Every structure is written in C-alpha cells, then in structure tokens.
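pls ignore typos typing on phone
flavin-adenine dinucleotide + seq
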Amino acid sequence: MASGGTSFKYVIVGGGIAGASAIAGIRDIDRDGAILLICSEPHLPYHRPPLSKGLWLGKKTVNEIFADPAGDYAARGVTVVTADPAEHIDTRNNTVVCASRRSSTYESLLIATGGSPRTLSGGQAGITYYRYLDDYVSLKKELRPGKSVVVVGGGFIGSEMAAVLSACGVDVTMICPDPHPCGAVFPASLGAAVLARFEKAGIHILANDRTIGFDLTGLRPLTRTLSGQSVASDCIIAGLGIRPSIDIAETAGILCDNGIVVDEHLQTSNPGVFAAGDVARFPYHALSSLMRVEHWDNAVSQGRLAGRNMAGAREAYEHMPYFFSDLFEYGYEAVGDVNTSYDTVEDWQTEYEKGVIYYVKNGKCVGILLFNVWDKCDAARAIIKEGSSRPASALRGAIR
Ligand SMILES: Cc1cc2nc3c(=O)[nH]c(=O)nc-3n(C[C@H](O)[C@H](O)[C@H](O)COP(=O)(O)OP(=O)(O)OC[C@H]3O[C@@H](n4cnc5c(N)ncnc54)[C@H](O)[C@@H]3O)c2cc1C
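k done
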C-alpha cells in the first residue's frame, strides 16, 4: 500500500532537463501552485551535453552543469524527491506512487522520463552504457592519460566520447558499425574526412565492424569483434542510442508508439497528462510527421511549453529544435531530419571544414547540417518550413 499521500497541483515525473524546464514553464503562468519533481537519479536535474565534452576537457566543473546552480527548488515552491523513481500512475485517481511507496496526487502531470541506454546482449556487467552523471564520475576516476578504452558505437555519444577521451590522452579504440563516425548523419565525403581526423588523433577505428562478445573476467576486459579482432582495454564504453522510457505511461493505459504519443499541445491520450523531451513522440508540423527527438534543445523547449500548458496555456509546439555536437575542433548544429538515407547537397566554403549540407527527401529539403557555420539555425528553419522543391543549384549558397 502506498503511504504518506500528499497533494500537489503539478507533478513532474523525471528530473532531466525537460522536467526541470517544465518548472519554469509552470511558473511563467502560475506563480504559486505546488509542484512535485520526482527524480530517479540521486541528483538534481543537470545538463547531459557536458558529460561528453566540457567536463572531460576541464571547461566545466560538475557544479556548473546543474539546471539550477543554486539548487534552491524550495524557494520556487518545488518539492524534489531524488533516487525514488515513480513506479505507478493511476490516472483515474490522479495519483503517482514512487518506489518508496510515497503517494502523491496531481491536477496536472508531466511524464518526462527520457530514455535509457540500449544495451548489448551477452556483455552487461563491466560495460558503461554512457548517459548519466554517475557514469562520468566513475569513469573519470579510472581514465587517466595512458589508460585505454574501447568505445562501442559510432553515433553521437560514441564519436564524442572517442574524440574527447583521446584529447585527454586516453588510448582509444572505437568500434564503428559504419564506414566512418556518425554514419547516420554525415555523408561519405565528410565522414571520410572526420575518420581521417580521428585517426590523426591516434584513435584506432575498427570501421564496418561489430562486437561479437566480451571476456570481462580478467583485469583488462577483452572485446571481440566480427572482423576477428580482440582488443584488451582498461574500460569499455558503449553508446548505442536509447530506448524511450515509456513503461510507466504504457501501464497507465496512455497511448505509446515508439515514445509517448502527444498532440500539438504535448498532451497525451489522457487529458491532464503531458509528455515532453526524449520520451515524447510529437507532431513535427514543418516535416508533416510524428517525430521523437533525442536532443537537448527539444527537451528544454518542450519541457517549458509542457509546463505552460500544464498551467492552462494551451499553446502549440511549433518550435523546430536544433541539435549540436563537438568533435575535436569541429562543431556543428543541425535542424530538421538529417539522415544519410536521403539525398544530400553539400555546399563547402572550405572543404570538409566549413560548410552546409542539405538533406533532400522527395525533392524537398527536410534537414540542414551547419558544419562550423554558426548562428544560421533560423535560416535553416526557414528553408525547411518553406517545404518547396528547390533544385540543388538553388540550395547551394542559400546559407552562408
Ligand atoms: C552524454 C550525452 C551527451 C549529449 N550531448 C548532446 C549534445 O551535444 N547536443 C544535443 O542536442 N543533445 C545532447 N544530448 C542529448 C540530450 O542530453 C537529451 O536529449 C536530453 O538530456 C533529454 O532530456 P529529457 O529530460 O527528455 O530526458 P533524460 O535526460 O533522459 O532525463 C529523464 C530523467 O527521468 C528519469 N526517469 C526515468 N524514469 C523515471 C521514473 N519512472 N521516475 C522518475 N524519474 C525517471 C531518468 O533517470 C532521467 O533522470 C546528450 C546526451 C548525452 C547522454
């Protein structure tokens, strides 16, 4: 039985950046309504991007990554519980029950549970599926210059971790299923240039390769690959993407389909229950499709809007989120659907160092990647929103 029942006007399940941003959204509209923020991690909400960038490079300290650096949630009328995941939502009685059996009622609920890392079959313990502050803290103790790591996965997290750890003097082997890092986003030409940059940094890349097993019993774990390689290292880090954390919504009878399905107001199939951030599958109007976006700007923007709507604003989510990533001296931002399965139009000002890549699906530009090109997200949004068919010659030069 649940105990200690308490009433809140607003309950937020998930203390990631979407949940934290919802507090600001609620307070935009309602200055006093009592808010409960339920976190499964033992930390107050923090930003994840520095976990694979600035923290390793000494550009940020752990204290600087928290969403509210002062941590003074009580002053804003917010009760925070940490290390106590919500386990059950009863939408008939507007109640959330946590693992500790703490029970709370809500008038309006946000589910911002994000995603949990995909794991490898056959090799669980001893592998860090990198996502959480605690992962950073434990790896930071182990990975000094001269230590070695195998990074499994060539997506955003795998690529950023390989680059940042090699910049810290760690000996990195990267196992990449594609011919080059970020294979789902970078066309082959840029991918080859980025691969060359990784190799110049001394990263040993096993491209077009996969893990087939691990021996985690010895002092130095062993990673075996399909191509017949066997790599010993001090640590193994995997970045294999995430699964949206929908269980609590699904068991509550809320419509889920590769995420929690929401309408343009970020409301779920259950009135009064909202979802935002990595877990939410929402109508992306400019692309005329339902999308789930696993990036920081989307989590911040949706969280804020969901908070406003929880407090009665009824505003539509029209924002076209961008994402950003850093690899060595390269940085890039992107808007829309950037996917190498589409045609691409490359417009380099300096080949593979500075330029714009347009992603074209059925003749229309659906995504734009700005490689070392800054402050152009709005220009990119305008082109995607326009939705008209433009020949490649008209795309080249559209953004400078
Ligand atoms: C290492 C790393 C680097 C990144 N870098 C970039 C970047 O450079 N650019 C970019 O655009 N994006 C980046 N991202 C992605 C970005 O951080 C995410 O999109 C964002 O964190 C999503 O926020 P969220 O609040 O929706 O979900 P999450 O961050 O997943 O937060 C959800 C929280 O809810 C908790 N939770 C889950 N279930 C429950 C429950 N039942 N009860 C209570 N709490 C629960 C989770 O433990 C978690 O703390 C990065 C992500 C990582 C991991």
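The radius of gyration is 22 Å. DSSP finds nine helices and 27 strands in the chain. more later
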